[in-house]
Design goal:
Oligomer: single chain
Low-confidence stretches: none
Length: 366
């Protein structure tokens, strides 16, 4: 009974996120005179809550049986996106469906990747009573291969931020799965060496670097590495809006400074400007409560697969929360990562709600 009480408590911060999201998107929409996004966000939230309610009648564990099929479908969509996707800001990340809006396959791929990893772990757990080093190495490389395919397709869009999330999901899930720490140590050392060589090449042989990797990739790396010196109007205005807000802010809908991408990447700045330090503190507190409740469900369950799911979803959510708020206040580079449950976006919101419905209604029975 205790675990169900904890699960139900997760709905409380979700409802608060809904209120904060709609009010913040309303404030953001004033800057570019579009009220459609408010109605769409309300619609996506309603659909998400309906999904959570409807799935209580289903045994959500069965979806893991179809993980590989979903994985193939997700990669096919990512491939087709490179051919038929609509280009926005030099990126092909969306399919535009008339009457519905844009759909971002990479958002759903995050959840599919979590399910696919769980399927791999479940297979390995049933196959071996006691895993050997060889078994752990095989599992590691299988998971990395499964992660690499959507990562390459997403990188080509290009969307570097999403690629980081894919690998973060898989690494955290592998750690919770329990593969030998010696494998992680070796991989980390190798990554450090590769990164050192890569950066040496980048800083000392820039012309050759551009000839090999292209100008676009060079400037994507340049923006990440030199973000503190090249803040631009986005960060400058976002920081000014937050600093000027004071304790209680300027009020909902009263954002005195123009902030680019106010409804997505920089929605935290809009919200903090409107509600001040107190409002920002309330949002961060609710985010913390949500995360704690999520991991508490993991701690209370005896089902390994549910723990893997929460590990992957939790890693994704926490990273996005830290990254988005961090880039809004100037302590992390601007990567285009949105704030979960708050930023506008039907694909991202529905993917999160699907994951929440799976976690809340996972009964551990076939």
């Amino acid at each position: 009974m205790k675990k169900y009480i904890t699960k139900n408590k997760i709905l409380i911060p979700l409802f608060i996120f809904f209120i904060i999201s709609i009010s913040s998107i309303y404030a953001a929409s004033i800057n570019f005179h579009s009220k459609d996004i408010i109605l769409k966000q309300i619609m996506w939230y309603i659909i998400g809550f309906i999904i959570i309610g409807v799935t209580t009648k289903f045994k959500c564990k069965k979806i893991i049986d179809y993980a590989f099929l979903l994985y193939i479908l997700g990669n096919v969509l990512l491939f087709l996106l490179l051919i038929f996707g609509t280009e926005v800001n030099n990126s092909k990340c969306w399919f535009v469906i008339p009457g519905i809006g844009s759909v971002q396959p990479s958002e759903f791929m995050k959840i599919i990747l979590i399910l696919t990893n769980v399927k791999i772990f479940d297979h390995e757990n049933k196959k071996h009573d006691k895993r050997t080093l060889k078994d752990d190495l095989r599992t590691f490389f299988v998971v990395m291969f499964v992660t690499l395919i959507p990562s390459v397709l997403t990188f080509l869009e290009p969307d570097t931020g999403m690629v980081i999330i894919y690998f973060l999901i898989s690494f955290v899930m592998l750690f919770i799965y329990g593969i030998r720490k010696s494998i992680f140590i070796v991989i980390i050392v190798m990554l450090i060496i590769i990164l050192a060589v890569f950066l040496t090449f980048y800083f000392n042989y820039q012309d050759t670097f551009i000839n090999i990797f292209g100008t676009s990739f060079f400037y994507r790396i340049d923006r990440l590495l030199d973000w503190s010196n090249k803040s631009g109007m986005q960060l400058t205005n976002a920081l000014a809006a937050i600093k000027a807000a004071g304790l209680f802010g300027f009020g909902i809908g009263n954002t005195p400074i123009y902030i680019p991408e106010p409804h997505t990447d920089f929605i935290f700045s809009v919200y903090a400007s409107n509600t001040g330090f107190i409002g920002a503190l309330i949002l961060i507190t609710m985010i913390t409560v949500f995360d704690v409740l999520l991991f508490k469900v993991s701690d209370e369950t005896n089902d390994k697969n549910l723990r893997y799911i929460i590990a992957g979803f939790g890693a994704m959510i926490v990273y996005q929360q830290v990254q988005n708020i961090g880039m809004n206040v100037g302590v992390l580079p601007i990567t285009g990562i949105t704030l979960p449950f708050i930023s506008y976006g039907g694909s991202s919101l529905l993917s999160y709600m699907l994951a929440i419905s799976l976690i809340l209604n996972y009964d551990g029975k076939k």
